[in-house]
Specification:
Layout (H helix, E strand, L loop, with lengths): L2 E11 L6 E16 L3 E6 L18 E4 L11 H34 L4
Antiparallel strand pairs: 1-2, 2-3, 3-4
C-alpha cells in the first residue's frame, strides 16, 4: 500500500484563554486508493483499530493529488512533506507580519486621531 504524507502545524491549548502553549509539526498519513499517470486519489489512512492518522480535520472521502506541481497537498516522502510545511509556514509568517504592520499603522492613526 502506498501512503502520502502531510505535515501541519499542531497547537496544544493549555491556557485558560484558549491560546496555544505549544506548537509542533504533526504528521498526517493518507492511503492511496488509486494511482494514475498524473497523480493519486487518496483518503485519510486508518489503522486496523480505526484510528485515523490525520492531524487536522480533513472532510473528504477521497481527494485528488497530482504527482507534480508547486502546491501539492501531500507527498510520497516525509522529508518533502516537512519541507513543504517549512515553506507554508514561512509564507504564513510573512503574511502575518504584513498584517501586523498594517494593524499597528491603523492603531497609531486612531491614537493620534489623524483619521
Amino acid at each position: 500500500m502506498i501512503k502520502l504524507y502531510r505535515y501541519t502545524q499542531g497547537n496544544v491549548l493549555n491556557s485558560e484563554f484558549g491560546f496555544p502553549d505549544i506548537s509542533k509539526p504533526i504528521l498526517s498519513e493518507f492511503e492511496v486508493i488509486t494511482e494514475t499517470d498524473k497523480g493519486y486519489w487518496i483518503k485519510p489512512y486508518k489503522k486496523d483499530d480505526g484510528i485515523t492518522f490525520t492531524s487536522g480535520v480533513y472532510f473528504f472521502n477521497k481527494k485528488w493529488v497530482p504527482k507534480e506541481g508547486v502546491n501539492l497537498f501531500a507527498f510520497t516522502e516525509k522529508n518533502k512533506a516537512m519541507f513543504n510545511l517549512k515553506k507554508r509556514t514561512e509564507k504564513r509568517i510573512k503574511i502575518l507580519q504584513r498584517q501586523m504592520l498594517l494593524s499597528k499603522m491603523t492603531l497609531r492613526m486612531v491614537e493620534n486621531e489623524s483619521v
